[in-house]
Write a structure and sequence with these properties.
By secondary structure, this protein is α/β, with parallel strands linked by helices. It has a domain at 20-141 and 181-214 and 238-253: Vaccinia Virus protein VP39 (Rossmann fold). 32% of the residues lie in helices and 23% in strands. The chain contains nine helices and ten strands.
Length: 254
C-alpha cells in the first residue's frame, strides 16, 4: 500500500526519528550490535542527513540516499562542502554490488512503493555477511503514528484516536485513507527474511515525545515529560515492550 504521492506530509505523533533523544536512542541500539569504526554504511531514505552525520561522528564511513529533493537541499544548505548525501531511489540504488557493510532503513520501508523490492536492492549493495538495520512502525502500538484520513467526509483523524491499527485492512480501507504501511511484527520479520536476510535481533522502541504534532490536544504537549517517563518504563516491562511505537530489526545477508 504505497502512500499517496500528492498528499501533504502529516506530522508524526509524538516523535520524529531525528530529534535528539530519539536519535541517541536509535544510535545506542545500533552501537550495541556493531563497532561502527571503519564500516561502510548507507542510510537509505536519509532525510536531511542527520543520521549520516551522527554515524560519521561515531566512526562509520556513512553516506545517504534520499528521494525527496527538498531534504537533500536541506542537507546541502547545512553542510555546503559535504557530499555524503545524494538524491536517489531506494529501489534503484546508485552503487555497485557488495559496496557496504551496513545499511540503515530508518522509518522508510513503510513509505516506498515496493517494500519487498527495496529490501532486495539493499541486499544487493551489501557485502556478503553485511547487515541491514530496519526501524519501522509497529502495528501492535494502538495509535496510528503516520495519520489517516476519513474518505467521506474527507478529514484528518486525530493521532490520539486509539485502535485504528487494529482494524482489519479490508475494513479500514473501506472508509480510511492510510498514509503509510504499518507492520505486524511477524509481517515485518517475514518481509525481511524473504529478501534473503537472517534476523539476528528483533525488538521494539517507544517514542520519546519530543515533537508533538498540531493534530494533538494541548494536554498531550504539556504532558510530554510524564509521557516520556511512562514510555521509558514501558520499554523495560516485558509485557509492554512489544507495544512500542516502532520495531527494530537487525538482519544479516545470507
Amino acid at each position: 500500500m504505497p502512500p499517496s504521492t500528492s498528499a501533504p506530509a502529516i506530522a508524526v505523533a509524538g516523535s520524529d526519528t531525528a530529534t535528539p533523544l530519539n536519535l541517541e536512542k536509535r544510535l545506542a541500539l545500533i552501537a550495541r550490535h556493531f563497532d561502527l569504526r571503519g564500516k561502510r554504511l548507507i542510510d537509505c531514505g536519509c532525510g536531511a542527513g542527520e543520521y549520516v552525520v551522527a554515524l560519521g561522528e561515531r566512526g562509520a564511513e556513512a553516506v545517504g540516499v534520499e528521494y525527496m529533493a527538498e531534504k537533500v537541499a536541506q542537507f546541502v544548505a547545512a553542510h555546503p562542502d559535504d557530499s555524503r548525501v545524494s538524491a536517489g531511489d531506494i529501489e534503484n540504488l546508485p552503487y555497485a554490488d557488495g559496496t557496504f557493510d551496513l545499511a540503515l532503513l530508518n522509518e522508510v520501508l513503510e513509505h516506498v512503493p515496493n517494500d519487498a523490492q527495496a529490501l532486495v536492492e539493499v541486499r544487493r549493495v551489501l557485502k556478503p555477511g553485511g547487515s541491514v538495520i530496519v526501524f519501522s512502525p509497529n502495528r501492535l502500538y494502538p495509535f496510528e503514528t503516520h495519520g489517516v484520513h476519513l474518505r467521506r467526509p474527507r478529514r484528518r483523524i486525530a493521532h490520539y484516536v486509539p485502535f485504528i491499527p487494529y482494524l482489519p485492512l479490508p475494513l479500514g480501507r473501506a472508509f480510511l485513507e492510510y498514509w503509510a504501511r504499518n507492520y505486524w511484527p511477524g509481517q515485518l520479520r517475514r518481509l525481511v527474511t524473504q529478501a534473503q536476510f537472517r534476523v539476528r535481533y528483533h525488538g521494539f522502541i517507544w517514542q520519546t515525545f519530543e515533537n508533538i504534532s498540531g493534530n494533538q490536544p494541548r494536554l498531550i504537549g504539556a504532558a510530554r515529560p510524564v509521557l516520556r517517563r511512562v514510555a521509558m518504563l514501558a520499554e523495560c516491562v516485558p509485557g509492554l515492550r512489544a507495544f512500542g511505537t516502532s520495531q527494530a530489526i537487525i538482519a544479516q545477508r545470507v
